[in-house]
Each structure stands twice: as C-alpha cells, then as structure tokens.
Write a structure and sequence with these properties.
The complex is a heterodimer. Chain A is mainly alpha-helical. Chain A has 14 helices and no strands. The two termini of chain A are about 40 Å apart. The longest helix of chain B has about 30 residues. The chains are: A mainly alpha, B mainly alpha.
Amino acid sequence: MATTTTAKSAASLPAPVPPLAPRRHPSVRRRLSRGGLYALAIAITVFMFLPIYLIVIAAFSPKAAVFAFPKSVIPRQFSTETLSFFLNSTGVIGSIQNSIIVGIATLLLSLVIGIPAGVALARFAFKGRDAFQIIILSTRSVPVVILSIPLAVTFIQWGLYDSLTAVVLAHTALALPTTILVTSSVFVSVPRDLEEAALTLGCSPLGAFRRIALPLSLPGLTAAAIFTFVLSWNEVFAATILTVRHRTLPAQVLSSLNDSPLYYRFVGGFVLVFPSLIFIFFMRRYLLNLWGRVVR
Amino acid sequence: MSGQVTANDRGVLRRTARGGMWGRIPVAYLLLAPALAFLALFFAWPAVQALILSVRSGDGAFTGAFFQRMVQDTYFWPAVKFTLLLTVFIVPAQIFLALMMSLLLTADLKGTSVFLYFWAIPLAISDLAAGIVWLAVFTDRGYLNSLLVGLGLSETGFPFLSYQHPVSLFFAVVVAETWRATSLVLVILVAGVQVIPKDYGEAAEVFGATFWQRLRHVTLPLLRPSLQVALILRTILAFQVFAVVIALAGRNLPVLAEETYNWANALSNRNVAAAYAVLILVFSLANTGIYLRALRVRDETVGR
C-alpha cells in the first residue's frame, strides 16, 4: 500500500475498502458452545469458591455442629463459640500479633532494601545488570526448605533463634527477589519524561525522584507491600523451624495440629484464610502484574 | 531563550543532572549493594551452609553418615516415592486446568473480571490453610461424605483420609494442592496470553483455522515461555509440598519436606534435615535443567 499519500491525492482516491467483517458462524451452534463455556467457567468458580464457603460455615457453627452428620451446606445456626474458643486458646492471640508484627517488619525491610535495587534495575544502565537479573531470577530455583535449616544454626550462634527478628530476616530473604522485580517493573512504567521535565526545571535527581517518580509509583509499591505481607502471613516452614515459643499464626496452628480438636483446626483455617480474601479483593487490579508478569 | 528546549539542550541537561563526573555506574552499584549483601548473607550463604551441614560432622570431618542415615530411614523411600508421585499428578493437572481457565478468560465472556477474582482467591491462601479447608471436605464427618450420604450413594460415608485407603488419601492431597496452586499458574499464563497480539489468532481465523488449530499452532507456541516458567516454578514448589500434606494426612503420606521438618524439629538432627534439604535442591536443579533443555525457547518466540 502506498505510504506517501498526501492530503491532496487522498481526495482523488476511491473510497477505502471497508474492514473485513468478523466471520459469523451459524448462530445456534455458536450459542450452544458459548453456553458450554459459561457452564465450564461457572463449574470452575464453584470448585474454587465452595471450599472457602464451607470453611466459613464450619468456623461459625457451634462446636457440636462439627460432629453433626450428615452436614448441611446451609448454615443452621450462627455461633461464635468455636471462634472465641480458638482465640482464647493458649498462644493464639499472641501468635496473631506476632504474625502482624513479622508481616509489617518484613514488608518495610524488603521495601527499604528492595526499592533502591528496583530503581537501579529500572533506571540505570550498568555493567553486570544482566548478571544481577539472572541472580535474582535464579533464587526461584532454590527451594525455601533449604534455607531454613542453616538459618536456624546461624541464628542460634547469633542469639537470634526463637525470635521474631529471625523470622523477619528469613521472610525478607524470601520476599526480596520478588520485591526487587516488582519495584523495578513499577518504576519502568512511570514515564521518565516527567522526571526529566522536573530536572530541567531545576529539581535535583533525588528531588525529582521523590516528587515525581515516588508518588506515581505509590499504587504499585503498595501492591508490592501487600504481596510481601501475604507471603509472610502465609509462610509456615521457616517460621516453624526458626521459633519455639515465639510462633507466628501458621506456625502455631501447624504445631498444635495433631493434638487439637477438629473445630479448632477449622477456625484456625478460617482465620488464616480470612485476610487472604480481603487482600485479593484489594489487589485484583494488580493480580496479573504482581503474580503473573513478574514471576517470569 | 525561547520556550522550546532543543534536543541538544535536553541532552546536555540530562548529562549534567544525572551523570556528573561520576557517570551513572557508581550510583547503580550503591543502590544495589544492600540487596546484594542481604541476599548473599541470608540466601546464598545458607544454601552453601546446607551443603556443608549435610556432609560435615561436629568435629569438622567430612562424612557421608548423614546421607546414609537419611537413606536408611524407614520413611525415606516412601517420602521420595510420594513426593515424585504427587509432582507427577499435581503439576500436569494444574497446567491443564490453568490453560483451560486462561482460554476461558480470553473468550470474551461476560463477567470475566468476576471469574478472575474468584479464580485468583487461592493465590493468597497458604498451603496450611488450604490443607485445613480441604480437611473440612474430606474428613470422615465432612462435607463430601455428607453429600454422598445425602445422595444415597453411601450409608455412612467413606474414610477418605484413613491410612488404610492410601489411594483416596493421595488424591485428597492432589485435589487440595491443585486447588491451591492452580491460580499461580493461571496468572502466569494469562499474563502470557495478554502479550500475544490478537491479530495472530484473528488472522488464523480469517484463513479458516478451527479453535483447536489456532490453539495448537498459534496460542500454545507463543505461550511457550510462560508455560516454561509455570512448569519450572510449580515443579519446584511441588517438591516442597508440606503443610497441605501435614493437615490432610500427617505422616500417613510421608513427603520430603515433611521429613526435613521432622528431622529438624522433633528429632533435633539438623544434619540429616540438611541432607533432606540438599536432596530437594538437587531435585529442583535437575528439574529446572531438564525443562530448560526440553522446552528451549527459540529467540523469535520470546519477542519482548
């Protein structure tokens, strides 16, 4: 096709060919198969959500209902009896507090260390950039299990064993590679022109970063922070290996799993799941960016 | 000076503002230093230390005793067997399901964002919580047995999680783990599908390609990098399957990570625990190598 068409000669050209219309298939067959797709999508949705609905019912039923059989999927009786039993069990409230403290400390530490590295990857061309990226990506092929045992030995030597600090350091090590990749992708997406405009108007590089890039990247960074918190809130292996008395919630539930009644476990499961539902709700815009694009 | 800044002016400004006499290099290294130091101390060094722990005894002499003890343990071979079996069942199930889900999400259905929300929920659910959630379903007086009795398919229900029924126990773990971690594969694949230009599929459709032909010759080849990432990640995570198994099966279904945990905590022998951890690492690295060879991505398919 001619690319040199000017405004003058365009007037003399014949009317443009209409774009190809999408092919229409016989509508009955088409509609049937669309219906099948919806049925499949709804079936998957039920598979994904029904177990969560069931654990919520189990958590808000009275103790006796746990042993009732056969069970009804429609809640008969709403009760916070088992929930308050769980929360009043030894160590549970403390472990929830520990989980929150560890989660917040982990997200702060990994942002403080991760943001500069993310900025470096996003904004600077330097020797060894590719090597650094490969190092970050290769951490994914190292199983988490292998870190916990030696870290326990190290933390015993340092006097940090069975402390929240130990768990925070381990969780930060797990979260940091992802934090770096997420922050770098966030800063890549912030237009550089605005920062350059600020520089031409007399801002210092740091000032331009603080006034332009940081506010623009705040939503992405918040998402990264929530991601880190969820990782820490859910992590059970390292937390169990590194602590004895200062348990996080998953470690507390895991260690009392074998000698606790069923209703205790169900409520424990619910309390672990509950924040996840909220996180996913607030994060739904960032789901693909965080877990999808960045994990590659 | 006029209001317009010429290209040349901008170049000069950028150089003085960003570069200075130091150039760009030192700044980048300074920014990277904390992360590198932290990862070296709390990631790389522990990995090396695990190797050392597994082959060196308290007096500093190198020994194969810990690996020997690991292999001779009653639970060792069952743990290897069940870990590999679980991986063989869980990973393909997840890839298949996630592929189907990502195709559904790109099929222009109404309510796609609602579907995506529900399908993504397990992303933020821990393996321990997932195990407990499915315990409520599979336990003797659980919801699945309630359903079976309600439908008249069974008198009193079936003990799915009993050690006497290892097959149903095994598949309960497969279902729970598939449920939990398919979302992770899904977001990787959806992100990959989004990068594929829509024109390719439309062009194939114009030339009369059926859905299956488009899937086979357009979507899947272009999705290969994402599939590769998903396969590698999921297999590594499957080798570490842990809390789901503990919640549903306890030691009736021994797996490697669970043995690592038992040797470290209950038996207080960190050397044998480290030997188990090294074994998991070897499995993971071997698996990554095999996948990278088998699914080698040609340059033109990377396209980013």
